[in-house]
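Sample pair:
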Amino acid sequence: MKTMHNGLKRSLLVSLWFVFLTFPLMAVRVDTIENTVQWRFMNCLYIGIGSFVLSFVWRYLLDRKKTGGKVLRAGEVAKPSLLARVRSDSKLQLPCLAVAFLLAILFPWIVSTYQTNIMISALIYVVLGLGLNIVVGLAGLLDLGYVAFYAVGAYAYALLNHHFGLGFWTVLPLGALLGMVCGLLLGFPVLRLRGDYLAIVTLGFGEIIRLVLENWNEFSFGPSGISNISRPGLFGVDLGVEGATQYIYYLMIGMVCFTIFVVTRLKNSRIGRAWMALREDEIACQAMGIDKTKTKLTAFALGATWAGMVGVVFAAKTTFINPASFTFLESAIILSIVVLGGMGSILGVISGAFILILLPEYLRAFSEYRMLIFGAIMVLMMVFRPQGLISSERRRYKIDDMEAAPNGEAS
């Protein structure tokens, strides 16, 4: 009883604090046209009640987390979740993949062009998240300047198309190659750095790229940006706005499938196991004979390759780019996708990208409250699910006792 009383008291204090904190934003509205001030005290009441309930539920969930949640009885076996059953049962995977593929194919035909554009943006961030997942999720190298490689690919297509008239399909591999080269250029100076020092250097690299693009007017056209960038062509056919949007959508579907295939193969390869060993313990990794220099450079180069490639697609989609599209906020969003989805988990990164990109768009109905709701969801996820939405499964090796014994001998 005393514990509940203390919980109610603390929740009340939290609600009063939130009311005080949000008062200028939620209660006061200034109309600059009519020079009037509107007082919205009902919003304060809603904030107080909402924060009180959420605080009380928050404390209840934290107490339940500390006690381990539900306690199983003797002989009772915990039932696996639906996602765990799908991941472990190959018979369920094929129907789920077939349904997802069918929905992806039909999506542009059953929704508006606006919805298709939003989905293209989400798919772009899926590829960016999977690329950063190589560096952060698998290799454990904290990169805060990942948006720089994204900008390199976008400006490569914009400048080559503007000055030399090169098309999308010609520049697409060039953008990936330039991204890889920039990844190597970043990787060499930071070979001896890790942790916070590595994060600061990569952040500085991202800001250097942005400032160069913003101030070197003769090269990048400065803050004015580059407009009239050509969209991807289809055998010389002139596509309208709606046709070009659908074409880019299917192009991104193909790129996402290709990225998933390559990243999965990399994760299960020798270099993927070397990345995970580097992530777990760098000293032990080096003691086991793994070339630390080669492993880090490969992670930076391959991660930057996908950013450069999808940067070309971004420039073709928007037909206009400027340095404001490649700020640190973009790097933070991509990193949030990896952390929220689950570091090292491909399915988790895909889920995190869809949630972080689509959720703010579909919360526009809440107008000025949508970012508040979005931030609250992020905080809740980090507290109650720190491993991410879908955590990466560790590989398990099972050795049969009979196989371990020599042939013809008793074990």
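Residues 71-78 have pLDDT under 50 and may be disordered.
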